[in-house]
Each structure stands twice: as C-alpha cells, then as structure tokens.
Amino acid sequence: MGSVAQSEQKVAIVTGSTSGIGSWVAKHLHSRGYCVALCGRRDTYGQAIASSLDASGNSAIFVQTDVSSYESQANLFQTVWNKWGRLDVLIANAGCVDRDSKYNFARRNAAVNDLPPQPDTSCTDIDYKGAIYGTTLATHFMRHNPGGKGGKIIVTGSMIGIYPCQTFPEYCAAKAGVHQWVRTMGPILQKKENITINCIMPGGVETPAMPDFSTAFLPEHMTLPETLIRGYDTFINDTENTRTGECLEAAHEELISWGHPGYKSGAFAKRTEKVYEPWFEAIHGEKSELPGSMQGPPEKGPKIIAVTGATGSQGGGVVNVMKKTPGWKVRAVTRNTQSDAAKKLAAEGVEVVQASFDDEESLKKAFEGVHAIYAVTNWWEHLFQGKSQDESGEIEEVQGMNIARAAAATPTLEHYIWSTTPSAKRIFKGKLLTPHMDYKANIDARIKSELPELAAMTTYLYFGYYPQNMAFFPLIKPIEYPGNGQYIQTLPTKPDAKVLLSGDMTVNPGIWVRQVLATGSKAFGKYSNVALEKWTFQQMLDVWSEITGKKGVFVETTIDAWTKLWGPAGNELGLQFKFGEMCDPWEETEEHISPEELGIDRNEVVGFRGTIEGLKSFF
C-alpha cells in the first residue's frame, strides 16, 4: 500500500449519498476541502452528484456499492485508497426502512401448515450489517494513513432506535443495534487505533426513505438539514480525536448528547457491562487495556467502604457503625495518618490510608478496590483558617469535585454517598445566600451534570443542626450569666424557629450510611434527612435545662449584632438560621427516600435528648 500516491487533502467516504442525508453530507465535506467518495446503488444519480462537485474527478468520485455486501464495500474502500492513498472519515449513512411487514396480518387465516415466507431482512443487512462492514474496512485502511494511524467513523442512527415506532419494527431494531455498536466499539478503537466512532440520531427528515414527510410531521418535529450537518461537524471538528462512542440526537434545531443510561439495578448492572479480560483476550487475541477492566475473577469477601473525613464528626460516626456491620470493611481516608485519631482507628483494626482533597490522584489511589464511598467536606475548616465565606465555599467545591471525580474513576464502585445540605441561594434565586450550604449544593448539581454515571449511583444525605454544638461550639454553647446563676443562649433567630436535628454524630451518620447501602439501588438519586427530629430552639434549650439542671434562657439577637460578636462564623450561622425562618430547608419532597423506606430503626437513632444526656459531663 505504501506505493500508492497519497493525497495531501483529507479523504472521506459517504455511503448512501445518492440522495438525502448522504448527499448533503458529501457536498458539505467537499466544500470543506475533503476529497469525497460518494457511493450508492443508483449509478446515474451518484455520477451526477459527483460530477456536480468536481467534473474532473480529482476530488469527487462515485463508486457504485451495495453496502449489504462485504465484497462490494471492500471494492469501494480499495478504489478510494488506490486513488488517494488515505482515508480520514467514513460516514456510514446508507439505510432503508422495512421492506415487508413482519406482522403478517394478511396471513391470519392461513392454515397451520402454510408457513409464512422468509422475512425480508434487507433493512438489517443495509442499516446494521452495512455499518459493521464499513467499520471493519475503515479500520483496516485508517491504520495505514500517512502520519500515523487514525480517523473518524460517523454512523447515521435514528431516534426510533431509541423510542420504538411500531410502523418500522425492523428499522428500529437495526438502528438500536447501530447505536450499541458505536457505544461498544468506540472506547477500543479510540484507545488502540486512534479511530473514533460516533453516531448522529435524527428524527424525521425529508428524504426518499418514505413519502410525504412534510405531511406526516409538523415542521417543528422534523430535523433540519443544517442541524444534521452541525451534528456531523461536532465529531469531524474534534481535532484531538477523543470523543468516541457517543450518540448525538439531532432534534429540530438542537443537538442533544445521549450519555450513559445509568445503573437501574446498581452493582448488578455495572458488573454486566464490565470487560472481563480473560474473555476479551480469548475472543480478540489481546487484552482490551480499558480502564476498570477485570483482570481476573472478582475478589470474594467483605466489601470495602472508603470513608473520607474519617477522623471528623460525620466520618467518625460512619466508621463507628460500619466497622461493626457484617459484610463490610472500613477504609478510613485521612489527610494525616499519624494523627492521634488516625492511630486510634488503626489500633482498632481499621485500615487507614492517606489522601488529600486537593490531590485527585491521591484520592483515586485511596479508593482503589472500594465498593462504596462516603464523601464529606469541611467548609468551616477553611473559614477558621482565615478564608472568607465565599473563598471557603470555592475551596470546598473544588475539593468536593475532586472527590467525586476520583470516585467516578473507581471501577469497583457500587454506591456513592455524598454529605450535603439544602441551598438558600437555589431556593430563593439568589435573594439569600448561605455559602456553607450553597457550595455543597453546587457539588450536587455538578455531579448530576458532569458525572452522570456517578450520579446514577449516588445518594445524598442532608445534615442539619448538631446537638453537640451546645457543648463544644462557643457560638451555640449556653453561658452562665454573672450574678444570677442562669445560662443564656444568644442566637440570631426566633425561639420558635424549627431546625433539622442530626442527633448524635458519633452514631447517626453510620446508621444512615449502613441503611442506604442495604437499600441499594432504591436509594440511588435520592436525598435523605439525617435524622428524625425537627425542633425549635426553645425546645432544645428547655430539654438542655432539664437534663443539666441549669436554667437556660433563650435570647434573640440580630445577625448584625451576632456578626460583630463572632465575625464571619457568626454571620454564616445567622444566615442559616434566617434560611430556616423563611422556609423548611429540609422539607421532604419526591426526591427524598424516607427513613421507613431505608429500614431505619427509630429506637436505634440517638436524638437530641440522648445526645445531651451523653454529653452531660461537659456542661
């Protein structure tokens, strides 16, 4: 092949280009400077279009081809290579609809021994097998391209390969096969051959495939030719040649990417799609080398949950419960494995590994082989280090996405649990800001938009007010008023304002995580409040007084006064309290999964009273 003269212009083959979509794409590529080989069964039409592009035949030719025949396609590809010595793009567009009825309605009264004739499967041969033949041949020739192997294959699919239309059962099945062919072949061809393969899926298009499209469809329900061209250009313009295995819907005037369908059955579905290298090598002669492929049989034994922030309040509560949960092993992820808290965990038999939220690669290493991840970030840490409220949020969002991306890159992961909060900014359209809540909610949204496969296995836990704050957080802790022996709690909120109480943080986070994991796929995409109580501030102080024997008085102040007293931390909590006065941030919606659905045992959950009783010695 090296003796063939090689064109300096890029070369494209467009199948099914004697009319309709193929002819539009061929003309468009030629206008972009490509040498174009048109092909189809109708010689007169094809020759006329090729001549209209370049009568000399130097940059446009027609090769009569039946794509359902491998020999015919092989002749097409060989002819193109012999003429131009390269192949950069294959547009596998040739197609037709059903050529007979598979329903056989006219044979309802046929005798049982009068068998129906063999179905005409030309549609499958042209639409599906034709794409397989074209991919096989394109891969062969693109391996010999000048300047190194590589190229682009773009297959024309159809939206009724996604949404079945009963008029065209065979066509729907063939196009569905095309979509899956593209998704399946894409990663391997890109990795091993630098060849990308993608799919454009139009709706109704005015082509000769069926008569009277403009009668059967409203104008706004048809795909515009210019939208189709933009779709093909999306992949042709991918100069890095990294987009592969994608299906792109060409709606009326809009291009919509169809991503991964998600894991409706959780780990079962995720395992189903995973490449098992011994099988791949047995069929294809070498390993796939795809990230996350299984090198051998899966390990049996306890599953592993990685707990970030394992030496903190939430993470520690998860570790406390999960280390006692049958079938699970805990991997504590911490910044400093030499801290006293980390050494204590190690002494208790917990695996302790180092990772930094600022280092995505360290997180990926920490997550290797895990089946579940509990992820939590700490906005307050950055605030107390001198950052502003928004700066703290920006850092938290970066760190939260580092954790999420590392989780998404973990092939063994079956469930991701993200600790988050409601957002005043989102609920009130920016009229109220609560940075320590808003930036966490930003991470929720970005997981859903940027990491859809991770989102498909994510459960979101909403945490509220920690009762422990009354013992350890100076802003919240009741203090003795000199001279009268009473204790005052001064907060910038109303005494009858209610807040979600997360209860005992040494236990409750772990209960919820354990039950979320036990619930499995039914908890995917759902939010859950931790824990069971919503109390007023007056109720909390009254119970605190009862347990401690110290008379507490609630004193309401303003956010401005509290900010002067406590600085940014006071301002932040004041904003949260105002949020709670304006609405119930933790109101359960259709996005929530209830404690009952999670199988939460209310008797196991430690509420406000139990938490304060356990802390009585600290007051």
UniProtKB/TrEMBL annotation:
Tagged with keyword NADP: yes
Family to which the UniProt record says this protein belongs: Belongs to the NmrA-type oxidoreductase family.
Superkingdom of origin organism: Eukaryota
Stated name of the protein: NAD(P)-binding protein
Originating species: Delitschia confertaspora ATCC 74209
Pfam families: adh_short (PF00106), NmrA (PF05368)
Domain NmrA-like: start-end pairs: 303-565
CDD domains in alphabetical order: NmrA_like_SDR_a
SUPFAM superfamilies hit by this protein: NAD(P)-binding Rossmann-fold domains
GO cellular component: nucleus
The keyword ATP-binding is assigned to this record: no
Species lineage: Eukaryota, Fungi, Dikarya, Ascomycota, Pezizomycotina
PANTHER family: NITROGEN METABOLITE REPRESSION PROTEIN NMRA FAMILY MEMBER, NMRA-LIKE DOMAIN-CONTAINING PROTEIN
Keywords of this entry: NADP
